[in-house]
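Hi L.,

As promised, Succinyldiaminopimelate transaminase:
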Amino acid sequence: MTPVNPFLNKLQPYPFEKLKQLFADVKPNPEFKAISLGIGEPKHPTPALIKQALTAHLDGLASYPSTMGSEALRASISQWLARRYAIPALDPATQILPVNGSREALFALAQTVITPAAAPNGLPLVICPNPFYQIYEGAAYLAGAEPYFANADPARNFSPDYKSIPADVWSRVQLLYICSPGNPTGAVLTLEDWKELFELSDRYGFVIAADECYSEIYFKAEAPLGSLQAARALGRDSYPRLITLSSLSKRSNVPGMRSGFVAGDAEIIKKFLLYRTYHGSAMSPTIQSASVVAWDDEVHVQENRDKYIKKFAQVTPVLQEVLDVGLPDAGFYLWAKVDKLVSISDTEYAKRLYQEYNVTVLPGSYLARDAHGINPGQNRIRMALVAEVEECMEAATRIAAFTKKLASA
């Protein structure tokens, strides 16, 4: 028998694999061109200045990269954080670390901060929002911990009710993942939300991993509050047990660059750097040079945001006629209930929409787990409005026609 890590057996298929299985026996209507709102992959063009920076620094391919990243990149990230969140600049030498996209860092961070033998009364716990980005769950299992799901509450702007979690659960928690703006809900945490989480972290000693990769796509005049910004406002100037993660993928339409950063607690950053030195996750010098250009420029970010504002303003009212959906705080997803006009499951809705109108959406139950008696994604769908406005409007028109057809049947 081939030896294998037994924790791998705890991993569930990724949502897109489940979607592939759902559609396995379906032939989409050939009268319609395929439109996918299923995957959150930015489709707006990559800015020219970033492409130019990449080609201008191809000599970097001839050098081994440093795990710590260049001084120029760490300084650029520090300056961006200071501008964006109106906080004092973080120390580029001790509080910032470039990573190959937030996804790999979200996973690897769990391997750094979780101590399986240290939890009383069982395995350590990792608190995950529910619904959630599935990397959180996989990171927990493969670090020798168990995920504990905190259900999103629509009545609380999809924030979990952390007060309802028992003390004996909190005593086993070593890591808490939070996504703000949220995937898939688009909800942004308030200062009071952060105050509650920081107080719990102080009481029980767990690390907070703040996933903020959607922070630059928003629809109000005021930008979303960030975790570092909240910490400073609450007097937590050294960011104890807080690690913020962000990325250029959505902000700058460069998901293929795999460029992001972690920032915050210097002691955790120091240990994370040690882990990553062995893990072999250094960023290419060519990517680092282009990343400096991206973090230093806000013009392309505003242009990108303006596209999303225009798109959501046009698409959301069309869908509101047939689905229970509203404009999110931020991000590029619509998180909609499908049972406004029809009584149908999210999986059946997605399957029939694909079959009859050739539009792909992701069933909400695939993004959540059954926890505490419910699956908070049930009867919801996630729509990623990542394509240009014309394609998204065509998809919305088809979804409206499909739902009205179901309702009249």
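The domain at 63-296 is CATH 3.40.640.10 (Aspartate Aminotransferase; domain 2).

Thanks again for sending the construct details.

K.
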